[in-house]
Design brief:
By secondary structure, the protein is of the alpha+beta class. It has a single domain, classed as Orthogonal Bundle (Arc Repressor Mutant, subunit A), CATH 1.10.10.10. The protein contains 4 helices and 3 strands. Helix 1 packs across helix 2 and helix 1 crosses helix 4. This is PadR family transcriptional regulator. It comes from Actinomycetospora endophytica.
Length: 112
């Protein structure tokens, strides 16, 4: 699963959101590391709808513009849990390997 897809699903796990809300949430969730472009976002949303992982929730007119809200489906939540668990396990392995390589500080006192 791509980082963008993971962030979109994560953003929608809390509540339905419209496109700009998803963009802001993805940036916040990634601590500014990922900035979704509009074309990327709507392409991802179309794919996620086609895959049954999200679905349209409602449409609203806000300041004369149409906002379409999306919500995550049960299948989307299941995929998010699976991917989150996979990423967590991968991170754990990576950190364990890094810790194993680092020299450990010497313990114990020195007597002169």
């Amino acid at each position: 699963m791509s980082e963008q897809t993971f962030l979109v699903l994560t953003a929608l796990a809390d509540e339905p959101m419209h496109g700009y809300g998803i963009v802001r949430a993805a940036e916040e969730l990634s601590e500014g590391q990922v900035r979704l472009r509009v074309g990327t976002l709507y392409g991802a949303l179309d794919r996620l709808v086609a895959d049954g992982l999200i679905e349209p929730d409602r449409e609203e007119i806000h300041q004369g513009r149409l906002r379409r809200y999306y919500r995550i489906t049960d299948a989307g939540l299941s995929e998010l849990v699976t991917e989150g668990s996979r990423r967590e396990a991968s991170a754990r392995v990576a950190l364990d390997r890094v810790r194993a390589r680092r020299p450990r500080p010497e313990t114990g006192g020195s007597t002169a």
